[in-house]
Amino acid sequence: MTTILLVIHLLLAIALIGVVLLQRSEGGALGIGGGGAGSLFTSRGAANVLTRTTAVLAVAFFITSVTLTMLARQEHGPASVFDEVAPSSGQPQKQQPAQGTNPSVLPNLPPANQAPQVPVGQ
Questions:
Q1: Residue 4 located in a structural domain
Q2: Rounded CA gap, 86 and 76, in Å?
Q3: Domain contains 122
Q4: Cα Rg of the chain (Å, integer)
Q5: Residue 6 belongs to what domain range?
Q6: DSSP 8-state symbol, 21
Q7: What is the domain count for the chain?
Q8: pLDDT tens track of the chain, all 122 residues?
Q9: Which end of the chain is less crowded, N or C, counting CB atoms within 10 A of the terminal residue's CB?
């Protein structure tokens, strides 16, 4: 189901880009569809159709985006950083060096409960 919804989402994105490019540009020369004398719609009618089509495609795009997000959340479960942290007992825990590291190579760090020392001016 996710694959089908993803394909629909991509098709909506491509269609939305195409419809936006077909709209008549107000200021710059970015619009492709200009609307000549022999066009199927009047310029106002074409603008209304393209505007409504853009709105419908945008709503469908947002709906598929939210649906894909909800499906991904159900498949993978919660992925918050806070879910991975063990609850603290209120006391600072002494960190142990990682396996394979030499503790004499690690820098001399002050204890976690000691305030930092600020050098007094000259």
A1: yes
A2: 20
A3: no
A4: 30
A5: 1-22+44-76
A6: H
A7: 1
A8: 889 999 999 999 999 999 999 887 665 555 555 555 445 556 566 678 888 999 999 999 999 999 999 998 887 766 667 766 666 666 665 666 556 555 555 566 666 666 667 777 76
A9: C
